[in-house]
Structure of aspartate transaminase:
Amino acid sequence: VFTAATVAAAPEDPLFGLMKAYREDPSDKKVDLGIGAYRDNNAKPWILPVVKKADDAIHKDPSLNHEYLSIGGLPDFTSAAQKLIVGATSPAIQEKRICSLQTISGTGAVHLGGLFLSKFHPQKPTIYLSNPTWANHNQIFTNVGLSLANYPYFSKETKGLDFNGMLQALRAAPNGSIILLHACAHNPTGVDPSQDQWREIAAVMRERQHFPFFDTAYQGFASGDLVRDSWAIRYFVEQGFELCVAQSFAKNFGLYGERTGAFHFVSAPGADASTANSHIASQLAILQRSEISNPPAYGARIASRVLNDPTLFAEWEDDLRTMSGRIQEMRRGLRKRLEAKGTPGSWDHITSQIGMFSFTGLSEAQVKILRDKWHVYMTKNGRISMAGLNTNNLDYFAEAVDSVVR
Ligand code: PLP
């Protein structure tokens, strides 16, 4: 019989537990390198100037109200989100081979995609996740009833991509497996395949008839260039893959709490592609209806204004360069300091990795000393959020790392 007493306590979410410990630490030296949210040079959340502008315009717009959006969300938002992913002139758009639904940010898009594949894929294949991956992938895909497997991704020796291990695993996976790929700025490692490596990955996936599931949470945030950060997805689409994309606007618009994202299903080219795609859209709408009825309006209105206005769009690109540029500066600054101190080990991975996170290579024991002795908070796998570094704490953090590594 079910009673309240039969439910055991769940373990605390490690990342949110870390944030709590940081908040409760009274030290004025404390450094928060845990959560993946952008911070400015004063360690404060940053409202993108273009978001502020769009927000002000929304408040002055008398035509807006608080009615429900449609099940698929705000059409101006989803169509612009689609163009951002595959490029405005993509044949996939012209041939009506993409259907897009607004979702509860990237998490909701990953979930909707997982649920759809779990219900509609006749073989319900295993989904392969990179080892390591964003921890929530495991929970989300398990919740929708997909079976999970891993492919090697990170090489501890080079602190770069284990490319051979990855390809071998993709070759060994049963034909037609679902492969989850981070489009750019891999979380948690910051390690991305090169364009040549993406081409080889695509070739193996084509050979094995695998289904690509792209997760893109950092477009424009990684390199400062929206096109470059969507290169892998665009390449797979050009190659004629059928695939899906979970897209988040949390990081690149700084709209974390507004839960702004989209799910896209791209059908393969062919005479019946647009009909097949409209069938998929209709099934996705039914799933969405039962899960959230319709998505939240506010963040999508902001993003839509920016994405659909060339002047605001250009300002957004400036803001993206501000964020990615500051992070790249912190990467160079950290590496320079560690090398100047002669900190044992090699530190070039700090600058070759990209995006919000760096996989430092620090051990769990070293991470614990950093937290207990130095008040530096990071996840125990040695991942740091580069956005938590700034010109005020870089020297201190480098000193702390140097001391625990020696
Ligand atoms: N996917 C990856 C790889 C992420 O790193 C994140 C956020 O950290 C997300 C998806 C989803 O984030 P959100 O639901 O806030 O858009």
